[in-house]
Every structure is written in structure tokens, then in C-alpha cells.
Amino acid sequence: MSCELCELKKLTHWYYTSEKWVVLDCLTCKVPMIVLREHRSTISEKEKNDIIKGFNKIRWEMRKIKDHFHCHLEGMEVYYCKIHVFRSIEQNKKQFI
Questions:
Q1: Side-chain-facing half-sphere of 5: CA atoms under 13 Å
Q2: Looking at the 3D structure of the chain, how many domains does it have?
Q3: What is the number of alpha carbons within 13 Å of residue 62 lying toward its C-beta?
Q4: Cα-Cα-Cα-Cα dihedral of 52, 43, 71, 73, to 10°?
Q5: Which residues lie across from 58 on neighbouring strands?
Q6: DSSP E strand stretches across 27-69
Q7: What is the CATH number of the domain that holds 89?
Q8: Which domain holds residue 56?
Q9: Per-residue pLDDT reduced to its tens digit, 9-52
């Protein structure tokens, strides 16, 4: 079985990439989302806290793809991504690497 998030074809804009995470526009809803590069459905408390440190409004629900962790950004986080001012990632880059 293939996983759309494991394959991660560059079909939308990518804002940030590291060995652990990719932040890109969701192909379905066009909202920036954080995708774990490793195929698993849950993340550790430390990983969750790292995401929370970087972003204020996060939608944790995985609607379409339930077996590969990802979350969508909301509110001003979307605005910052769209104008390419990814301050939250840059300020907290150490947590994502």
C-alpha cells in the first residue's frame, strides 16, 4: 500500500524541510500543514511540544490520511506561510531538526 505523505511529491509550495518534518501547502485544502517524514500515525509528547512551540493555532485532526501523522496550521500561521515569512520555524528551528 502506498502512502501519499510518504511519497511527498512536490505538487504544492514547500515552506520548510528537514530530516524530520516538511511544512507544505495541503494539496486538498491549500492550507499549510506539517508532515512527519516517518510513516506513523502518532507523535511523541516531545514532538507535539516542539510543534506547539513553533505555532499557535494547529488543527490536529487527520481527516483524509489517518495513518501518517500530519496537522494543519490555522489563523495567522496560514498568513505567515503564504507571505513566506516563516518566523515561527526560523525562531524554533532547533526543535524541528
A1: 26
A2: 1
A3: 15
A4: 10
A5: 73
A6: 32-36, 58-59
A7: 3.30.428
A8: 4-96
A9: 899 888 888 889 999 999 998 888 999 999 999 999 999 988 88
